[in-house]
Amino acid sequence: MRWIRAIVSLVLAAAIFWGLDNRHGTFPALGKLLNPFSGFWQNGSQSDAVPEKLVVPGLRDEVRVVWDARRVPHIFAKNDHDLYLAQGYVAASLRLWQMEFQALYTAGRISEVVGPVGLRQDLFTRRFGLPWAAENAVRAFRDDSKTREVVDAFTAGVNAYIRTLDRKGLPVEYKILDYRPEPWTDYKCALLLKAMAYSLSSYNQDAAMTQMRNQGGWEEFHIVDRLFPFFPPLIDPVIPPGTPLDFTPLPVPTRSGAEGGGANKDGESGHPADSRLGATPSDPGGFESPGYRTGPGIGSNNWAVSGKLTRNGFPILSNDMHLELSLPAIWYEIQLSAPGVNVRGVAFPAAPLVVAGYNESVAWGFTNGTDDVLDWYDITFKDDSRAEYLYGGEWRKTIVREEKIKIRGGATVVDKVVYTHYGPVVRSKDEPPFTNMNVPPGAALRWLAHDASNELQPLYALNRARNYANYVQALETWDCPAQNIVYADREGTIAIWHDGKFPLRWKGQGRFVLDGTDPADEWRGWVPRGHVPHIKDPERGFVSSANQMPADAGYPYYLGWDYAPYERGARINEILAAARDVTPSDMVRMQTDVLDIRARAVLPRLLDIIQEKPATAAEKKSFEELRAWNFEARAALIAPTVFRELWNELNKLTWDDEKTHDMERMTRPASQVMVDQILNYPDGEFFDDANTYGSIETIETLTDIAELAFRAAVANLEKRLGPCGDAWRWGKVKGTQLRHVARIPGFGREKLEADGIGHVISAIDTVWAPSWRMVVELGPEVRAWGNYPGGQSGNPGSPYYDDFVDDWASGKPYELVFLKSADEPDPRVVGRTVMRGKK
Amino acid sequence: MTAVLICLLTMLGLQLLTPYWWWVMIVPFAYGAAAARSGWKALGTGFSAAGLLWLGSSLFLYLTGSGLIATRMARMFGLGKSWLMVFVTALIAAVAAGVSGYAGYAVRALVKKQAK
Questions:
Q1: Measured distance CA(A682)–CA(A700) in Å, rounded
Q2: How far does B57 lie from chain A, in Å, by closest CA?
Q3: Which residue of B has its CA nearest to A1?
Q4: Is this complex scored with an ipTM above 0.95?
């Protein structure tokens, strides 16, 4: 009896011990987590207190950190080394967990933390060559002595902070997921830059385009080029049409017969890839649906207005960069000051320097260039071993890179990635699709972000730029992701450069999967840096960009075709073209403009068609909402909801019937093509339902399609949301979410109701939105306003975690504190920390 | 009562000095194995001492700055109210300590009998 009692109670105690000390699937180790002395209870706001003195080993001199009321650090150092070491320390103290988690994610090591659920993601990351790209970037960092100093100091600062942490002080996510931070390295800074390159320069539709081109009859009627034109209607390019070139262009490569992306007269380019792909019927399961589509449509805005147009006579620069919303936020604010530099703006927690911002002389900001710097090459392997592949009539050897993916609580998976001279083969022929991207099976990836590049070098120079010449020089080494970098300075100059490293290609090269066996399909050198699209002090008094096509047909080089739709760019230019006596608050208001010019263009026409037809109560109510609408995407309105649904149905009914049976899903043409069809081709062939092709009696026009679309839209909404009423309000339907970076429930902000939609200036959508809004006035005293969706602290238990969110959602920015010295009195300063290397 | 207090203070000291949660199992086990008069006494002492320690400390933190993180943790666990985190914290420690104290006594009872 005693034996049984002893054994049972011991086993029970041991089971409880084991149960509480370990993670179970995604369920945390409760003993560790709930322990009031070192578990989550220690992650409250108690840790928000600003220390007066800190010992940070490695500092050469005293560093002073001034904290303002929004918990923005203003770092004053006596040399560069100390400046970036202190930045590393401060960044880690605010955001360590986020920094490391992003690095692990991009390194393809997420399975080490989350277990087997992360394997597929890790596999994709490794196949895509992101760790390889970061290794190449590290080499470039180390080759440049200045970058090396900056990155090494930053790394030392992060590690100095990590060394202060006992279990109690760890960010709460480490406690929930039950692991510990490892030492920081320069490789992790590189991973962050490659994560951004992936996010901003990997979007492509090459596989879907290739499949479309290969449909019967498509090539003959040039349908790809008509639906996905190189120079789409309605687009107002970044560089105003007619701007004269200030350089002599290089001869542009051509590929006989391939001009225009294979849309040649006889439908046969003579291109070996064409005949080969054409001869093999495409495999219907071979391409996955491009439903993820996170490319064009999301994006950013920036503009600069010359002093000619402003009330105070000073230039004003505005920037809002749209990225995926998250908590902790992607940015944090910082001021960095040392001899030779005093810069303020936003930075990525995981990398040194200010990324977008201003100093005492200039301001700059970004929108994504959205150019095509990623191509797929069809590879012909000698045999299944994939040890050799055909290139220029010879067999070349592949290189195998072994990727070892450690899985928490399981074995290590070894993935042998085959590399050609182009880059990695991401997906083999017989493999199921990745959800991340539409990857053509068996093709090798040529991606600019794999090439060694050092984007910290131009950032270092921009942080210190004093004038236009400094800015232009800084841009020379900005490779990838290509950006529209807007500029304004106190001397009154405004400019925008569509900057990046661009392969020299024939028009349309890389729009379809290329032939990996033919050296003629390779990139042919680079567009010279002075030849990228750019403009300084234009006649019209402003420069702007919104990820749209950089230049019109007068620009000599081919940079890509799949740019953002027209709406944001056109709206910005429309407002600025009429602007006079501009003030910073006008620019702040403009950043929250929600006028939907797409709706403004097509809705009157559609309502004319629909007006006699509403039958049900919901249809009548919807119709009235649309008719009374001022085209603003306001959270409180019902019309934006109805219009979005109507737009989706119109697109579905217009385009989806064009696909043929062996095309699983077609990428739909961009919005401007649809708008053009509605306004200019209401009786056009695309509105005719292809299912009734050849039947003369049933030729559908816009009238038929619009009616059907309206009915279907209202029916969908009723089914999904119930009777037309409160539940249909746009803010509710859109439900903007700031999810936690690791998607921990309760750690994000869900169902935020905010004005805006992806294609208006204030592009607050469900998960993509302006991630940093900034307005800078370049007067004798530079003044700036800004806000971002989040808060400075990465600690979910701190009020500083998400304290900017509500003001951000309602479009209210803060005037930014920009100090000249650590001693400058400012009522908004709430604390000061003195850092020293030794006591 | 004295036993509860001694256990509680011992655990408090060890928890302040080290990051380990399992002192709330070790200390009651040791008490059960060394001094408890009965299994139920060992269980009750461990349960009360650890429960009170984690209740008191988590409640203190809950009221002095950890309310927000408790709210988020409660949401993560699907609990409706943030104060439930205090309750769950105390309960987990109490149950673990109670069972451990009982097991300590049961082992001692075994050794004692063999010694006889």
A1: 10
A2: 6
A3: B110
A4: yes
